[in-house]
Every structure is written in C-alpha cells, then in structure tokens.
Amino acid sequence: MQFREQQAIYLQIVDYACEQVLLGKWMPSLRIPSVRELAVTLEVNPNTIMRAYEILQDEGICSNKRGVGFFTDADAMEKVKNYKRKQFIENELPLLFKSMYLLNISFDEIQERYQTYTSTLNA
User: Fold this and answer.
1) Along the 123 residues of the chain, how does pLDDT read in single tens digits?
2) Environment class of residue 62 by beta-carbon count within 10 Å: exposed (0-12), middle (13-18) or buried (19+)?
3) Which of 37, 71, 97, 114 matches a 20 to 30 Å C-alpha distance to 120?
4) Model's pTM, two decimal places?
5) Domain spans of the chain?
6) 9-76 has which CATH code?
7) To the nearest 10°, the Cα dihedral for 108, 109, 114, 120?
C-alpha cells in the first residue's frame, strides 16, 4: 500500500478497510485480518492498525471478539457506505464547491460529466 503524506496513516488504513468491505473482500460477519497480520501486510506498526480498528469499531463496522479476533458487522456494507458518505460530505464536498466557485463551473456541467462517467460504468 502506498501511503500519502496529506493524511494520517491510520486514517488511510480505515479507508483501506472500508474499501475491502465495499469490494466484498471482507465479508459480513466474518473474521478480518488480525492487528498483527494486517500490520505485516501493510508494513506498519501494529499500534497504527489498532488505532484504525478502534475507529472501525466506533463506527460499528467491525467488532472484537476477545481471544478470537476482529469480525465485520453483519451490516458492514451499509455502515461503510454511511461512514464514507459522511466523510465525503464533510471533507471533500466543500473543496469541490470551492473549486467550482473559483473556476465558475456550473452544476449543469458537473451533472453532464457525471452522467457521462456513470454511463461508461454501466456499459
């Protein structure tokens, strides 16, 4: 995994975990990599993974079964979508609006490009 300097590593690991759920690689109600396993895979300190897992637990995306390991929630997919939607609206959308305002880009132009983009996904 290539880490970006603009964001804390543990938050990037939260994003990675969310992506694993959305891609269906971490299935609902099943065990996910242990703190140590993921630390080795991503080549980071286990404390960094633990910090990311704590956020995932706070959001209800995963839980720790003492002595057994971490498991995704049965509704992990929906919880990830809600978490990522909230993050997008609070963090990324204001930057998009600022750029649209400064560059005089209309919502119509954005909508047109979005429709073009989604049509390529559905093809």
Assistant:
1) 889 888 999 999 999 999 999 999 999 999 999 999 999 999 999 999 999 999 999 999 999 999 999 999 999 999 999 999 999 999 999 999 999 999 999 999 999 999 999 999 877
2) buried
3) 97
4) 0.83
5) 9-76
6) 1.10.10.10
7) 120
